[in-house]
User: What shape does this take?
Amino acid sequence: MAEVLVYVDHVDGAVRKPTLELLTLARRIGEPVAVALGPGAADTAAALAEHGAVKVLTHDAAQYADYLVVPKVDALQAAYEAVSPAAVLVPSSAEGKEIAARLAVRIGSGIITDAVDLEAGDEGPVATQSAFAASFTTKSRISKGTPVITVKPNSAAVEAAPAAGAVEALAVSFSAKATGTKVTGRTPRESTGRPELTEAAIVVSGGRGVNGAENFSIIEALADSLGAAVGASRAAVDAGWYPHTNQVGQTGKSVSPQLYIASGISGAIQHRAGMQTSKTIVAVNKDAEAPIFDLVDYGVVGDLFEVVPQLTEEINTRKG
Amino acid sequence: MSLRIVVTVKYVPDATGDRHFADDLTVDRDDVDGLLSELDEYAVEQALQIADEADDAEITVLTVGPEDAKDALRKALSMGADKAIHVEDDDLHGTDIIGTSLVLAKAIEKAGYDLVISGMASTDGTAGVVPALLAERLGVPQVTLLSEVSVEGGPNGTVKGRRDGDTASEQLEASLPAVVSVTDQSGEARYPSFKGIMAAKKKPVQSWDLEDLEIETDEVGLEGSWTKVDSATERPARTAGTIVKDEGEGGKQLAAFLAERKFV
Assistant: This one.
């Protein structure tokens, strides 16, 4: 059976959920061979084997932390040359997409980004993508070279499928360009204890109607009652009420959770572009004419300062 | 020596219009107005600020696209860029990302550059990989997704910036020449002034075709594409949801809905 390279996104050996989802999709088109780089790379093996990796190629070097992107491209290319895979799959993070794109040029291949589904086809893997603020669904494939495809979080369920997961050291020689962009400082993002926005099963977002940074505590309380991530519309971010890393929309992050709750968000096209593929959509807004209500499975026309705290209290009571 | 900045911009269909695909599954550009991709305005703005700080700088805006794409160049010129290059060729119709990066890279090399600045993504395709592809093709450092950017030391100087990622905020540094991309957090883009709009009409817009760039027609266009779109289907409209007016019990009603769907 053909081998499929899966690039592993991990933090000090802890594999992030989108990579486990990717292994599920990889199994549809071949045998997953995982590539884990940087500190803790070998520690990823158990989780990767549990989810179907027949082999785990690992390599650690200071270059991965000290320089931007290119060392990882060099390593993925080394893995590509060692394995000659039928396809290369990479999680659709900002960095993942850059790594995949540069690899595609190097190996003379096409690239598909932000796939939301993947299946085997007669002429190679077929990727489903969302286009134009998720108003269209396209199916595409790579027509030149080895398919390089990046896949968005929440595109597949994580499924256990134990495999050998044999760890092998990957031999990497860095290119002259690897050290071109120095990382001269790094400030880790403080953990909120909440799930990461793009990976979360539930997202609770606030917009212009939240009317102030201090009021986001109402949104956070609802998120915490549901074990959800917190999102914000561009208006709320531009007003300085919530960090840009939490922005949902065309210029922020695109999310596709099981449940999306929009509070005080009117639903401009730019916001819809980032959340329209959510499975269940709920909105609270005092303007009955707000476009967000065209998308909802359930909407409450009302004052979020009344509705949201009552909702949170009721959820906490039911969990009681 | 003058700091040569090339800003790549894209002419995109207006997101508030009714965007759809043409019969050949490329983006239908006839039925929707086009404009300069909003995210590229941030790139033009940062170019203008970097040029202001430099002793001597020249900003060239570059686009690949149909005849109408000149509108995007005019907008950038009216914001304050010095000159423009329009790569236009009938054989470019249907060119994908890999092909577009090839055309842009060849045009950037022909134009001459010390610094390339791009937006973080286009607002139509939204892939966000063109800046990395340009760095790969040009063989220069990528300093991408910056929310802050500065250049010191002119054409042989250094570019520095801050990249805010999911898990960390990173300070980056590279020697010129380099490719930079900026996010919508890099600083609000200026509106063109009346004077700027008038001045833009007199600024040079150069047109290049594939022959000028020594690119074979089979390397680009729909036929030369590295990817093939097999189908594009409109997402069915969502079935109308339940909408209630809050009469004091809205939160509780919503909780009941969430419980019914097993979210609670």
